[in-house]
Amino acid sequence: MLFSAPRLGCGLFDMSTTCSDVSVMRRGVLGGARLCYTSRADGQGTSLTEQWVRPPLHMTKAYHEEGWAISQLMSPTAGLLDGDLLEVKAEVGAGAKAALISPAACRVHTMPSGNAQIQQSYTVGADAALDVWPAPLILQSAATLKQTTHLEVDRTATVLMCEVVSPGRVTFGECFQFTEWSSKLRITRNGRLLAYENFTVFPAVGDCADWRAHYPNGTYASLYYLTPQPLGELVQSLHGLELENATVGASPLREGGLGLKILAADGISLRKAIFSVRNLLILHSNIVFPTALKRAQTFFY
Fold first, then answer.
1. In sequence order, what E strands does 40-157 have?
2. How many helices (H) and strands (E) does the chain have?
3. Is 118 helix (H, G, I), strand (E, B) or coil?
4. How many of the other CB atoms lie within 10 Å of CB of 87?
5. Which has the least CB within 10 A, 70, 75, 101, 213?
6. Minimum mean pLDDT range among 24-28, 142-146, 231-235
7. CA 278/CA 287 separation, integer angstroms
8. C-alpha–C-alpha distance, residues 174 and 39, integer Å
9. Burial of 293 (0-12, 13-18, 19+ CB in 10 A)
């Protein structure tokens, strides 16, 4: 699952240097963010009490609405290149509510060798809420991306975590030409394992055959929903959604939540499917999510 931010481009090199030479000449960029959100002592919302952000990642001033702090993480640079490492750590303290939004897609560029890495770690305390909602990762031709994600939640916390992946620059006729995409994800509740994913995709050897059989140029989203609320008929309701050019699969976790995968024919169909799924999950959570999320997540609105 994925939190995204673009990276260094060719602009810092001599003008005679071509972009194809950059991956050989440059050193990897190490950047990221470490954030801590706490509930205000007066009970009037959430404050960002600790903040460390390293370029090229940039964070705008947080929105505050309905007791939430909403942070936008972004970068004006070109994308992830060979040797780049992006690390994001966020802690949401007891009773706090935080949203991490990335409104601009992140391109993972062509790399003749090596890989780019994204490492994410989230801790969500008692009666807290976290919404992680990035724009897509775009896996360009000959790109290699390795991701690791760990989410630790209290049994009374609510989490909605989304990752969106595009298998190339589809509008330019580039699709499923990336070299490798690997992802490791662990979700624990009070130290107990709830979900574990560990996969590697190599399109060249047919790993995406099922994906492409459904939607040849399709986009992908993964969502995890953690809640103290009983699931009831939620899985059946999700499977009953009437979605055009999209397919949703939902499975309950060992306790207190579910995992979802969405495949769609194109980006527009995926956005509509994510809206439908999020609306249903937010309604189920019995938590008021702020309308400011729509202003912050400009990629989807």
1. 46-54, 58-59, 63-65, 68-74, 85-92, 97-102, 106-108, 116-124, 129-134, 137-139, 144-153
2. 5, 18
3. strand
4. 18
5. 213
6. 24-28
7. 12
8. 45
9. buried
Tell me: the pLDDT tens digits for 47-67? Answer: 999 999 987 678 888 889 999
Q: Is 208 left (phi over 0), alpha (psi -120 to 50) or beta?
A: alpha
Q: Name the token pair of 243.
A: 């979605």
Q: 232-265 pLDDT, tens per residue? A: 999 999 999 999 999 999 999 999 999 999 999 9
Sequence-distant (6+) residues with CB within 8 A of 82 are: 23, 28, 111, 112, 113, 114, 115, 116, 144
Q: Where are the domains of the chain?
A: 33-296
163 vs 262: CA distance, rounded Å:
10
**Which among 267, 261, 257 has a CA at the least distance from the CA of 247?**
261
C-beta separation of 103 from 75 below 8 A: no
d(CA 158, CA 229): 9
Query: Which SS3 state, helix, strand or coil, does residue 250 take?
Result: strand
Beta-bridge partner residues of 163: 222
Kindly state the DSSP code that residue 43 receives in the 8-state scheme: S
pTM for the full predicted model: 0.88
HSE-CB for 276 with a 13 A CA cutoff = 20
Tokens of 10: 């060719």
Dig out the tokens for 211 from the structure: 């994906």
Q: For 258-295, how does the pLDDT look when each residue is reduced to its tens digit (9 = 90+)?
A: 999 999 999 899 999 999 999 999 999 999 998 878 76
Show Cβ contacts of residue 84 under 8 Å, excluding neighbours closer than 6 positions: 7, 8, 28, 29, 30, 31, 116, 117
